[in-house]
Design brief:
By secondary structure, the chain is of the alpha/beta class. It contains 6 helices and 8 strands. Strands 1, 2, 3, 4, 5, 6, 7 and 8 form an 8-stranded mixed beta sheet that branches. α2 links the parallel β2 and β3. The protein is globular. The termini are far apart. The model has no long low-confidence stretch (mean pLDDT about 95). Bound molecules: S-adenosylmethionine.
Length: about 200
């Protein structure tokens, strides 16, 4: 059966290279969220940082369509968009040093070892994030799967382009004043949340 959102889902404009600044009308910095799902983090982030522009890349046509429409309905459509795209392909089209933060909230909900090959940061996405983050930009990842946090940490350890302050990239609190839907749920359920915060050198 055809996905009812396939005709209406918001897609990135055609072309090879894409400047994220051409996608939103914000005069301030632009942040990227990969896999925003139901979009709560985007809305909360826009509320705490009034100058910010945000772009979400969400592979599920339904949620990209619904969240992008809600942004418009709430008068935020100029400052933020969500596109129905696979981040592993879409980020590769963004221009160099064009975003000031990349957020990856609860990306891979599976904990089994055999699922590791499916993780979103694989297939070159991490290298593209390195390229699109401006110097000093933030890379923030949170998960409630301990094994995934270990895996992300190992992936970042192999990338000299990232630094962290203190002994490790692990941080206790979310510094962005915005929570994702899954983060809210994990907190309500009393689940541990593993957070990693890196800065692009
Ligand atoms: C477990 S959900 C978390 C949703 C939201 N970030 C949160 O914390 O509530 C993971 C999300 O990432 C999206 N996703 C998975 N792979 C993706 C990809 N390659 N590109 C864009 N989005 C992706 C899924 O569709 C889903 O919405």
């Amino acid at each position: 059966m055809k996905n009812p959102y396939s005709e209406i889902a918001p897609r990135l404009p055609e072309g090879e290279r894409l400047d994220p600044r051409s996608l939103v009308a914000s005069a301030g910095p632009i942040e990227l969220e990969i896999g925003p799902g139901r979009g709560g983090f985007l809305f909360e982030r826009l509320a705490v940082e009034p100058a910010l522009g945000m772009i979400g890349l969400e592979i599920r046509l339904k949620w990209a369509s619904i969240v992008d429409r809600k942004l418009r309905e709430q008068g935020l459509g100029q400052r933020a968009r969500v596109f129905a795209e696979d981040a592993r392909r879409a980020v590769a089209r963004f221009t160099d040093a064009s975003v000031s933060a990349v957020h990856l909230n609860f990306p891979d909900p599976w904990w089994k070892k055999r699922h590791e090959k499916r993780i979103v940061l694989g297939d070159g996405l991490l290298g593209e994030i390195v390229r699109v983050l401006r110097p000093g930009g933030a890379m923030f990842i949170q998960t409630d799967v301990s094994e995934r946090a270990d895996l992300y940490e190992a992936l970042f350890k192999a990338r000299p382009e990232f630094s962290f302050s203190g002994q490790s990239a692990r941080i206790e609190h979310n510094p962005f004043g915005a929570r994702s839907p899954r983060e809210h749920r994990a907190i309500a359920d009393g689940l541990p949340i593993y957070r990693l915060y890196y800065e692009r050198r």
